[in-house]
Amino acid sequence: MRTTKEETKRDGLLESPWQQAGNGVSSGVLTDQVYDCLIVGAGITGLTAGLILQQAGKRVIIADLRTVGFGTTGGTSAHINNFADTTYAEAESAFGEKGAQLFADAIQEGAALIKTNVDRLGIDCDYEYKTGYIYAETDQEVKQLDDIYQGMLKVGIPAVYNEEAPIPVPFKKVLEITGQAQFHPIKYLMALRDAFFKAGGMLSENTLIDKLESEGNIHSVLINDKRISAKRVIYATHMPPGINVFSFRCAPYRSYVLAVKLKDDKYPDAVVYDLQEPYHYVRTHVINGEPLLLVGGNDHKTGHDDPAKAFSDLEEYTRKFYNVSSVKYRWSSQYYVPADGFPYIGQIPFMADGILTATGFNGNGMMLGTISAKILADQAIGVANRYSEIFSTSRIKPIDGFTEFVKENADVAYHLVADRFGIPETDSLERLVPGTGKVLEYDGKKLAVYRDEQGNIQALSPVCTHAGCIVNFNTSEKTWDCPCHGGRYNTDGSVITGPPTKALQQIQIN
Ligand SMILES: Cc1cc2nc3c(=O)[nH]c(=O)nc-3n(C[C@H](O)[C@H](O)[C@H](O)COP(=O)(O)OP(=O)(O)OC[C@H]3O[C@@H](n4cnc5c(N)ncnc54)[C@H](O)[C@@H]3O)c2cc1C
């Protein structure tokens, strides 16, 4: 096994505070082998599943395109809740009372599984219970809050209205929900990785898994000239690669977080959420002995709004309500909103039997990624799991979700067509400011062009290799982001995250 002291990287230029806890790459030596399970992706979903399976006596290999925690798990804000972005009232209206109850049970079981791992493995990951508050600032939000409250009561989540809360924002009504928690996601993930190694698991980092070959019940792939075969494959990639139904059932969103130092000591000892559109949340985390206020939200569909503006709006909001001394960290990451509000977990439709995935976690992937890992591990072993049906990847639903589904896909169709006509013809290469990128027309060709700080130009085809939409430049993370399905690329064209597996084509310009 080899260990280097590289820092944990994540899928953007900006640094999250979690990266401080990175302790590099570890791996065994790859040989041609048949494993019980190949897990693609070393985020919270993949590592939790890997550990469960390896500890159940299965032989597991985890492969990640980059490094452990490189994906959204390295850019999360790491709240552990017993409620979710899909409210229990919404869950009931789309999936009935039984569906809402199963969803609540799954969320809570995911949260409990994290706590069990923390206790059982003795993980030092800043795990702390906190009281949660959701507050309403307008009459319409009060109505929303009442629905949330009723939904919680129905599924047995204890919540009470309170007169007071540690919130500097004037509010009309506030709901107090005890038993929330927070942790340091990378410290947790690294401990899962170490436990996985201890149980005999194998990890291959910097390994893109693209096309699998399936013969009978065995699926195989070449990694560094070694044929790695497995009886089951789990795509724990947040979104499975390639063209598949999930790209069309889940919409990619970017979400923003600041970690700020305050001039006073008014760090809330709670996790707090508003109901605005776009929403905000705050919590406190001690990083390197220093308390920091984490303020997050301002989400928007990937590739649609200006990330720099999302950050500046978030900072303005924070400064309005808190006595900010300095902004220590700012970062953004991506999550996927499922069309009908529930995650998709299980067999990937139209792929060979035994190729599984989990996606569509919304902003709740700590709990849903963890419970998905358990569901997928059960499915891989052939054990019944009570959540398999409700989260089935082939469910034909939804009562309410259909309109959302149509809306998200109409939006994709718009970008496929309209972006081709919308490229500014007049923008010239000369006017491109260092450190920025733009899709422009040059010499009769549409190009995605980035000028680095030294003035060097990197030109690429702007056509996303996934489904052919035109990428947009993300000024904050310095990436090319696809507005359709969330494919994201480095300025050299290489894939960072999302469903594409092929780089943007590099184009030579004079
Ligand atoms: C800003 C933000 C805040 C959030 N806050 C919370 C929160 O407070 N609580 C909560 O519960 N959830 C939260 N979420 C959601 C949660 O962070 C995610 O749902 C969760 O981290 C997803 O974990 P994952 O393991 O499924 O995917 P990831 O962590 O994205 O891991 C996927 C891995 O797969 C690898 N990969 C991808 N494609 C390939 C390939 N073809 N071959 C090999 N490897 C591949 C990637 O490199 C990556 O490491 C938040 C999300 C965002 C964006």
TrEMBL record:
Membrane-crossing residue ranges in chain numbering: none
Chain ranges of the Rieske domain: 424-510
UniProt-listed Pfam families: DAO (PF01266), Rieske (PF00355)
UniProt keyword list: 2Fe-2S, Disulfide bond, Iron, Iron-sulfur, Metal-binding
InterPro entries per UniProt: FAD-dep_OxRdtase, FAD/NAD-bd_sf, Rieske_2Fe-2S, Rieske_2Fe-2S_sf, Rieske_Fe-S_prot_C
PANTHER family cross-referenced by the UniProt entry: FAD DEPENDENT OXIDOREDUCTASE DOMAIN-CONTAINING PROTEIN, SARCOSINE DEHYDROGENASE-RELATED
Protein name: FAD-dependent oxidoreductase
Organism: Mucilaginibacter panaciglaebae
